[in-house]
Amino acid sequence: MDRPPSACARTLRRLRTSRGWSWSDLVGHLQTAARALRITRIAAAQPGSIRRTVARWESGKSTPDEQYQLLLAYTYARTPTGAVALGPSSDLAELLDGLAAAGVEPTRLDELTTTVAASITSHGMSLLAFLGGALQNDLTEALADPTRVDLPVLEGLAHANNAVNAQIGSVPFVRLHLAQAAIVDSCRHLLQGTQPDIVRTRLRDVASRSYALAARIAFETRDDAAALRLHSDAVATADPAAPSQRALIRTSQTMVVYYSTGDITRARRIADAAAQDARRGPSALMRARAHALQAEMAARAARQRHAQAALHLAWHDLEGDIGGDPMPGAFSAGRLRGFEGVCGIFLGAAEAAEQQLTQAAGTLTRTRESVQRSIVLADRALARLHTQGAGAAETSAEQLHECVDLVAATRARVPAQRLRQARLELRPWRSEGFVGDLDDHIHTALIGL
Q: If we measure between CA atoms, which residue out of 250, 251, 255, 258 comes closest to residue 233?
């Protein structure tokens, strides 16, 4: 007796038939994707062989291997009309759910999403790329009458916001700006209406997170005026009853203010406000993050005692009971080591700083952490130089090569500034070959010939 098709098999069949495709049609699309992605094994295969493979998937006798997973994701990341669709309720999201039901690991699904998003948006990104078809329809009705917005629409916007955020480090910021603009504009319009308290509270939460992410993206694309304004909007919109979330926004605002204006006094005030919010909130991880940022701002202002006290508080927060923390991804011990290291550079503890930054770099290995890793690597090279040990300058220059590659890949602004600072401090060795090699790498990767 034949067993019923699995959830994954049903999903694959539904995705194909909903587009009116035969097996041969799907094979054609898969081979087109294989040629675009240079997967020669499948691009050169006989169509009949691939049709039999598709039939086995849809009967539940097998599941797609990793190469076919990528090709299916690439295919279903576009609508039948060719528009990019990566968000909730999209065909791509449905495919990923089907693969998850077949036992594909979450890390593999994240890798698929990242790879496909980077590849499929290389020719441009739609404003609605992260807003799935069903969400677009519901959102259109809500925008026509903001009083009618409901929680499912807001959850869809929240998922879309998270989907954009998840692509930082893999998709260029200029592309993400287009997608985030649609979410921000939707939130602004919906806030003009009146809603029941439960809906209004959730709307404010979604809007504040959307503004904060848009501020980050604006900063990375060198639109400092927009970044500062959006961060102010994010803080003003955040629910006072959610102090941990407001603290998270203010930690991001601190860095944008410091790097866009150079005003350390203003940045310290915002960091202090973030710490005050965090102390009123339920998240120990958020408290640790806010205290760590307080420490860095104090160290940059040469306030050693304040920096050391803030670091002590950060470790105290992390060493407590953080199981079940409401903001599990907000911070980690590895990232705190990075803050310790940068504080050590400014406070004259270069050797300890180098060790701390090496430990931090060892924990930042995921694609999503590329921006943070490049910052830590630049700081580690600077700490190495400040040790003034034998060969410190050459080792520092060598350590910066990976940072150059990461900055070239992410185009993130803060790592680029940290890299620039480390290179400036290598000026006394500018006639040395190892500095020349580094300059060649910087020129090739970041400036071009």
A: 250
The pair of structure tokens assigned to 52 is: 């039999």
- Span 123-180, pLDDT tens digits: 555 656 777 667 778 888 999 999 999 999 999 899 889 888 888 877 888 888 878 9
**Reduced 3-state DSSP string for 286-314:** HHHHHHHHHHHHHHHCCCHHHHHHHHHHH
271 neighbors 278 (Cβ within 8 angstroms): no
- Measured between alpha carbons, how far is 390 from 369 in angstroms, rounded to an integer? 32
- For residue 118, give both structure tokens: 């980077």
pLDDT tens digits, one per residue of 324-338: 999 998 999 999 999
pTM here is 0.77
pLDDT tens digit sequence for 47-105: 999 999 999 999 999 999 999 999 999 899 888 877 788 877 789 989 999 999 999 99
